[in-house]
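Protein Record: Sequence and Backbone Structure Tokens
======================================================
Tokens: labelled as protein backbone structure tokens, with as many entries as the chain has residues.
Question of interest: how does this chain fold, as expressed in backbone structure tokens?

___
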Amino acid sequence: MKMELVMVENLVPGNHLLRKIDKVIDFSFINEICKPYYCENNGRPAIEPEILFRMLFIGYLYGIRSERRLVEEVQVNVAYRWFLGYDLEDKIPDVSVIWQNRLRRFNGTDIPQQIFDNIVRQAMKYGLVGGKVLYSDSTHLKANANKKKFTEREVQKETQDYIKDLNKAINEDRALHGKKPLKFNGDEQKEIDEEEKENYFDDDGDAGSGSVTGETKRIKESTTDPESGFMHRDGKPKGFFYLDHRTVDAKANIITDVYVTPGNVNDVKPYIGRLKAQIEKFKFEVEKVGLDAGYNVSNICRQLHDLGIQAAMGKRRGVQQKGKYGKYKFVYLKEWDVYICPERNYLEYVTTNRNGYREYKCKNHRCATCPRREQCLTKKQKTKSLSRHVWEDFKDEAYVFTHTEEGKKIYARRKETVERSFADSKELFGLRYCKMRGLSKVAEQCLLTAAAQNMKKIAMCCG
């Protein structure tokens, strides 16, 4: 048997990722924020929370999904031991330590959020966050639940948080056009979400004037993970999922916000709230945002305008019948408040309905003799009609900016910022699906994954 005297410090290469992270990231804050959850004078000494979370970060950094396997890897990997401050013969914490801390000590706390926020602030100190241009998107994460095990139940439809502003805008628009104001039943009035308009479209693919029927909707609820949501979007897999809503700063691709919702929550719902939370928390002075077409709805554009933020976003064409003219074929003249069809005929204002849409129609005799009637109207239609949201001017404003040279550059960078961030988290950091159940535990996974991504970015830039 040969005996050798070695130092763990000398066994870790100088350019190792963990060495770079240890050099640039200050982990001492973890013990401080976790201090209220530990008893100082009762029971045997606990493993320091800094070591516990360092261990978890190793798992995220190297895509080790199983915590049991993580313990096994730490036992045999010298670099992992060095990062945790353990010598070659020191005993590694058992996997039950991780589980019990999560279930008992940190359950229901915001420790993962605090850790993520602190890493963002450290990135800001290194000058890696500009806070001027932000990119946001969401990605679906497969829930740890069988899609065939569910129950169906009726749930109350949620009232949109901007409904009072919309009702006010509707009556202001009606007054502007000489129409009588509508009476609304307080906050119970519902608006047709622009993401769900296909259920209320006229034959030409544009929003009709019908009102929302019913106050409840039927949903599928998983019996394995009831907090997940059943997703059935076009082009997406069906099943129970969570959504990771993420914001990335344009300067160095540092992730500045992570927010998790069930998979059946629309992308636009938490967006403005999360944007305002970042501005308040990190004192960002946001000037521009880059978003995909899913966020291109009137209310989002209105609120971004009110915040003084310009948006570069994709264009939504909506639903239209195959072979028929869509709304994009018609030109809106704001100064005359009319639409002009490809045959240079006017679609004139008729009314503003209680769902927030102005209705425009063409005179019957114009459509009856139109040479493009077959491409424009369905068999049931006698005249062409279009709808325009009372806040659609804000969408037009975003459309104009998106097509400027600056807007094109901002929108083009989506693929190398937020989309790249999601790709890395899934391919390199093990965030392809949820390893735990429940909204808070999935949020922990997403927040710590994003924190690990930020650590790696800081280390590569400053280490």
Notes: The radius of gyration is 27 Å. The chain has a mean pLDDT of 87.
